């Protein structure tokens, strides 16, 4: 009976140890994702080099989000407002598209965000049919 219990403990240890080692990186990743998570709010940024406010209205658990892009009323485009849809990737990269330009009309893509001062900053490019210009989103750290 004692030998059988010991064998059972050894088998359990052999099964549980690899599972724990797989779970630990996942837990660290989840904690890091929480730290970098995009959230609802009004944030400053750039869309094709022009100052904008990026208003995130809803962020879904799968990383997709919806909101609005508002150009500076005194900038070269005037008081333009348009809807946006986007997705936060598994590596925290960001893809965002204007709703008023049709599918693939103007798309912003970034790599992973960086901490700059007291903000998370996503930097990348906005591409359109005939241009490629700067994109930036600055989200203050909590």
Please supply descriptive tags for the structure shown above.
142 residues, alpha+beta, Lipocalin, 2 domains, 1 helix, 9 strands
Distance between the termini: 56 Å
Global shape: elongated
Instruction: Assign the CATH topology of the largest domain.
Output: Lipocalin
Low-confidence residue ranges: 10-35
Major sheet: 8 strands, antiparallel, barrel
CATH level-two architecture of the largest domain: Beta Barrel
| The named CATH superfamily of the largest domain | Avidin-like
Instruction: Kindly provide the name of the CATH class of the largest domain.
Output: Mainly Beta
**How many runs of DSSP E, i.e. beta strands?**
9
Q: How many structural domains are formed by the residues?
A: 2
Topology pattern, helix = H, strand = E: HEEEEEEEEE
Q: What would you report as the Rg, rounded to the nearest angstrom?
A: 22 Å
Strand order of the largest sheet: 1-2-3-4-5-6-8-9
Strand content: over 45%
Q: How many helices in DSSP terms?
A: 1
Helix content: 10-25%
Mean pLDDT: 82
The helix-and-strand class reads alpha+beta
């Amino acid at each position: 009976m004692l030998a059988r219990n010991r064998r059972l403990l050894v088998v359990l240890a052999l099964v549980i140890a690899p599972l724990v080692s797989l779970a630990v990186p996942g837990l660290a990743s989840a904690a890091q994702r929480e730290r970098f998570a995009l959230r609802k709010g009004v944030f400053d940024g750039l869309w094709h080099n022009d100052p904008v406010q990026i208003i995130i209205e809803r962020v879904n658990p799968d990383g997709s989000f919806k909101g609005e892009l508002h150009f500076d009323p005194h900038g070269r485009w005037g008081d333009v407002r348009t809807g946006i849809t986007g997705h936060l990737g598994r590596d925290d990269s960001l893809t965002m598209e204007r709703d008023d330009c049709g599918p693939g009309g103007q798309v912003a893509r970034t790599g992973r965000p960086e901490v700059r001062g007291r903000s998370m900053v996503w930097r990348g490019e906005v591409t359109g049919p005939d241009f490629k210009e700067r994109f930036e989103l600055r989200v203050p750290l909590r």
